[in-house]
Specification:
- This protein is α/β, with parallel strands linked by helices and 452 residues long.
- It folds into 3 domains: 105 residues, 2-Layer Sandwich (Gyrase A, domain 2), CATH 3.30.1360.120; 113 residues, Four Helix Bundle (Hemerythrin (Met), subunit A) (Up-down Bundle), CATH 1.20.120; 157 residues, Rossmann fold.
- The chain has 15 helices and 13 strands.
- The protein has a 7-stranded mixed beta sheet. A 6-stranded mixed beta sheet has the order 9-10-8-11-12-13, sandwiched between helices.
- Helix 6 packs antiparallel against helix 14, helix 7 runs antiparallel to helix 13 and helix 13 runs antiparallel to helix 14.
- The longest helix has 25 residues.
- 42% of the residues are buried.
Length: 452
């Protein structure tokens, strides 16, 4: 029997609508103590239909008129009886209603406890449960679409046949070993060689999506670099849509890296405005220059900016040398609204775009270049691996599968090959939930907020 939990699902902010959620065996009876229907009783309310009534505080006073919806086990999000109150979104009203529920027998929900119960009751697989928070935190339509696909079970469905293949292989081996007198087809590891190769390749293909998924989830680190006073901070402000960074005519105004997350085209960039790179005797500025160089090394994208109204200098070429070996780089010739002293052909970059950070000229072409560089090679339908915990588990499964294949090729006995296969199954089980430990489960749901 599960105790009833309750929480506000819409956060502690003023909003038009606020939702209080309950889940547990006796949640309908507890909810009826604080919510009175205008017609009938909550215990007799129809499944998954909104009904009108009044919410009461701990003293029985009416604090709001709202709607309630009842979902009975197992046809609910958590697989248990659930009730939701849809009230006006006053934090005071929601807090009073929640307090009345606690006094009536409900207990405060822990972080992610509703989704955890859905997982424990078999309503969601582990990959689906983890994708719920990714969907909540999605910062782009593509990130949302990929998370929605994983909530729908796309990743789970990709892993299930691989896991089933390994289960069949291991069960065949142990059946022959444990029941030698039964009429069971002889076990031969060579009969499974093709499926091992196919399954290992499938895991490798999935691992290859992680870099795309990492950028999809947290954005690409993009370092804006150039010598002082070429418009790096103005570019960041233009892309952010507000004055995020101080801009002056004094060279060296930016003395440390400044970050801002923006959507450029369909790509989320974590823009890093760096100190102008130049030789300097100013100790503080020198530290900023060193951090700029470190930002270039760690970036997924380098954005070189020069002042197009003035000829290139040795300082410009020094920065170009720093950027030239980076895999992904875009050169922006800023101040194209002024006299033109730099031509695109003067810069050794694949992408060279003339812009004006002042009036926004060329920023659309810049966005197109960013989207081209970070073109989505895998459809964002749930097939992209975005979760670092899942990536680590699948990587360990892939490594174990490679060891098993190598052991088979070296002619090792089947039991040694199966040791690696069982390691792969254990690692995959941490993703599917088949062998997940309680401490891992708890850590996963700690990412959630209360009420989810």
């Amino acid at each position: 029997m599960s105790h009833t939990i309750a929480a506000v699902s819409t956060g502690n902010i003023v909003s038009a609508i606020g939702i209080i959620r309950l889940s547990g065996d006796d949640c309908i009876e507890i909810a009826e103590k604080v919510f009175t229907l205008y017609n009938g009783k909550l215990t007799d309310a129809p499944e998954r239909k909104l009904v009108l009534g009044e919410l009461h505080d701990r003293d029985g006073r009416v604090i709001d008129q709202g709607m309630a919806v009842v979902s009975r086990a197992p046809h609910s999000y958590t697989g248990e009886n659930t009730v939701e109150f849809h009230c006006h979104g006053s934090p005071a009203v929601l807090a009073a209603g929640l307090e009345a529920l606690y006094l009536s027998g409900a207990k405060p929900a822990q972080r992610g406890e509703f989704t955890k119960r859905a997982f424990m009751n078999g309503k969601l697989g582990l990959t689906q449960a983890e994708a719920v928070i990714d969907l909540i935190e999605a910062e782009s339509s593509e990130a949302a679409a990929n998370a929605a696909g994983q909530v729908g079970g796309v990743l789970q469905k990709k892993l299930a046949p691989i896991y089933d293949d390994l289960v069949n292989l291991c069960s065949h081996f142990h059946a022959v070993l444990d029941y030698p007198d039964e009429d069971i087809e002889d076990f031969g590891i060579e009969n499974y060689a093709n499926s091992l190769q196919t399954d290992t390749k499938a895991l490798h293909t999935l691992l290859q999506t992680y870099n795309q998924g990492r950028i999809l989830r947290q954005g690409a680190a993009a370092a804006i670099v150039g010598k002082p006073n070429v418009g790096k901070s103005s570019l960041l402000n233009a892309l952010a849509g507000y004055d995020r960074v101080i801009v002056t005519e004094v060279a060296g105004t930016t003395r440390d890296t400044v970050e801002e997350s923006v959507l450029v085209g369909s790509t989320r960039l974590r823009l890093i405005d760096t100190a102008g790179i130049r030789d300097t005797d100013d100790k503080i500025e020198a530290i900023g220059v060193e951090r700029s160089k470190q930002a270039v090394d760690a970036a997924d994208l380098v954005i070189f900016v020069c002042d197009g109204s003035k000829p290139l200098t040795e300082e410009d070429f020094s920065v170009i040398d720093i950027c030239s070996e980076h895999q992904n780089a875009i050169a922006l010739i800023n101040k194209c609204d002024l006299a033109n002293a730099v031509e695109p052909g003067d810069l050794p970059f694949l992408y060279v775009i003339e812009i004006s950070a002042k009036d926004g000229t060329g920023l659309d072409q810049f966005a197109d270049a960013v989207d081209t560089i970070f073109e989505k090679s895998t459809p964002c339908d749930g097939s992209v691996l975005t979760n670092v915990r899942q990536y680590d588990a699948i990587r360990r499964a892939f490594d174990a599968m490679q060891r098993a294949i190598q052991a088979f090729k070296l002619g090792e006995t089947p039991d040694l090959v199966l040791t690696d296969i069982e390691d792969a199954m254990t690692a995959m089980g941490e993703v599917t939930g088949a062998t997940v430990r309680e401490d891992i489960t708890s850590r996963i749901f700690e990412r959630f907020c209360v009420g989810k």
